[in-house]
């Protein structure tokens, strides 16, 4: 992926690291090691792997923006997913400090549960529960997320790094 981007565009300025997958909704005591592995490998390792592949190109240019997505912390029946996403926050905060001297800004965006493919098979009760927990009483949409990503990716956001921005409270 990184090689194809470099070949096509000559450089990578921005990484929107929006990995997301989850094992089935179920209580922690019923989760298997395979469930744990899926949630951690995609949601935490996935973002770490892509960041590691992109960073040498950003470091060489002394410029870059990395936006890592997180969320799902503290929600019942997706505890390992939430743990992996909490790991994304800790990883991103540390990475922000590590690469700041190279002109690379790293921030974390927490959009909240969105109407995306990730939840297309979720039970209606789970979706309804999350709509009710949301301050705005609805799920997030791509139109809610786009402006925040645009800000974090822009040069207007040149001093803010290592920050977690939650779009709506739950």
In a nutshell, what does this entry contain?
The chain is α/β, with parallel strands linked by helices and 170 residues long. The chain has helices at residues 2-9, 33-61, 79-99, 124-133, 142-153; strands at 14-17, 64-69, 104-110, 164-166.
Could you characterize the architecture of this molecule?
The protein has 5 helices and 4 strands. The chain has a 4-stranded parallel beta sheet, with helices on both faces. It starts with a helix and ends with a strand. The protein is of the alpha/beta class and 170 residues long. The chain has a single domain (2-166), classed as Rossmann fold, CATH 3.40.50.
Main attributes?
Rossmann fold, 170 residues, 5 helices, alpha/beta
Question: SSE layout and pairings?
Answer:
Elements: H1 2-9, E1 14-17, H2 33-61, E2 64-69, H3 79-99, E3 104-110, H4 124-133, H5 142-153, E4 164-166
Helix pairs in contact: 2-3
Just name the CATH architecture: 3-Layer(aba) Sandwich
Choose one word for the global shape: globular
Stretches where pLDDT falls below 50 for ≥5 residues? none
- The fraction of residues assigned to DSSP E strands is 5-15%
């Amino acid at each position: 992926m990184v090689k194809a981007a470099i070949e096509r565009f000559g450089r990578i300025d921005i990484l929107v690291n929006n990995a997301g997958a989850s094992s089935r909704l179920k209580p922690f005591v019923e989760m298997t090691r395979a469930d744990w592995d899926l949630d951690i490998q995609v949601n935490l390792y996935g973002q770490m792997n892509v960041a590691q592949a992109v960073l040498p190109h950003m470091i060489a240019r002394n410029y870059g923006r990395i936006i890592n997505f997180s969320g799902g912390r503290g929600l019942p029946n997706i505890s390992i997913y939430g743990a992996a996403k909490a790991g994304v926050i800790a990883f991103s905060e540390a990475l922000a400090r590590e690469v700041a001297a190279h002109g690379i800004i790293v921030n974390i965006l927490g959009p909240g549960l969105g109407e995306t493919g990730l939840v297309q098979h979720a039970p209606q009760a789970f979706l309804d529960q999350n709509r009710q927990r949301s301050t705005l009483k609805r799920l997030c949409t791509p139109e809610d997320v786009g402006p925040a990503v645009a800000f974090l990716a822009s040069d207007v956001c040149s001093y803010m790094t290592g920050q977690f921005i939650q779009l709506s409270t739950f």
